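Appendix C reproduces, verbatim, an entry submitted by the partner laboratory led by Prof. M.T., so that reviewers can inspect both the input and the predicted structure.
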Amino acid sequence: MAVKPLEDRILIKPLERETKTASGIFLPESASEKPMQGKVVATGPGKLLDGGERAKPAVKKGDLVVFGKYSGTEIEIKGETHLIVRESELLGLINR
């Protein structure tokens, strides 16, 4: 199943939750925080502007992004959790 986002929406695969702290302590699942970073899997064509043109998305497939803790809608694709967010809900782009 392939999902193609519409308008200015972005499909993101969230990064895995951290199971160990920087000091080496293992965290139980209930204590680990929801990930707020992910990899862009697909983008929509962009927001439709008043003049009928589309604003090209600022991110592309493969980019690492930061999003708000409660942003978007979670969906399941092939047994894996993904997130669909509007481009305006993205907080930043992570440079590698």
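The chain has one domain: 9-16+32-94. Additional entries are available on request from the coordinating office.
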